[in-house]
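To the team - guanine complex, inputs and output below.
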Amino acid sequence: MSAEDTPKPICEDHVIKGRRLSKRIRKKVKSEVEALTEKHGLSPKLVTVIVGADPGSQMYVRMKHKASSKAGILSDHHDLPESTTQEELLALIKKLNEDPEVHGILVQLPLPKQIDEKAIIGAIEPLKDVDGFSPQNIYRLFYGGEKLSSATPHGIVTMLDHIGWGDLSGKHAVIINRSTIVGKPLIFLLLNRNATVTVCHSRTADLPSFTRQADVLVSAIGRRESEDDPFFITPDMVKEGAVVIDVSTPHGDVEFEKVKEKALCITPVPGGVGPMTITMLLQNVLDAFTAQVS
Ligand code: GUN
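Output:
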């Protein structure tokens, strides 16, 4: 292999290159999708559902469709009005569960308050649950044999794997987030990699006393509304040599330029966790398709 062929490192100048890693994984997903499409005469298909007109949800879902198309994954979308009832949404999910040409179902969260999120997530066929939120997939995660897992946490541990931090024995991971989408699934993914895990959230007292202990610090606070707002994670809150993962978009939680001086590796915003989240969704669609056609 010539020097030109040597793949560039995922952590370079203390920065975890989320886009670089995403590109590599998406290329692999695309070639596997092509091979499976040829073998089965059928392409994987993702169907997304949005209820209401939240602009953030619309933007994220558009990005998911664009990335799917580039990877050879078919996709379809249902835009339902804010007034949709739980019964109407359940009826759509039943139809998608039964459609053999649909391999992945993603209901974008949050849902309007008249709809019980748990009832909707629980109704999605586990093999098609590309978010990994269904009871069966959470159970698998709990026992350490997950097949489909939530895209953002999955992206985070995949980045850790690629910087050589796949086994976290002896390492203390501190997560600032307790959501069902990020914090809670990440607890198990990190525990399953032997980390000692601490979870902090909005009611935690003395946050810096926890963050300073972190070998792996994952911050998903997401309350900075503009570039002018103060950062939540400043260098005095970070241990020398820590791996720092900033999940929050679009403004980030971490004072990137200063924390980079102390961190072993840090994810940028944008270009860190964001592209990895979409990449792991594509991987999940591929894995769901593989399980359904085999
Ligand atoms: N809303 C924010 N992130 C996500 C996600 O990963 N999946 C779904 N379904 N909704 C979200």
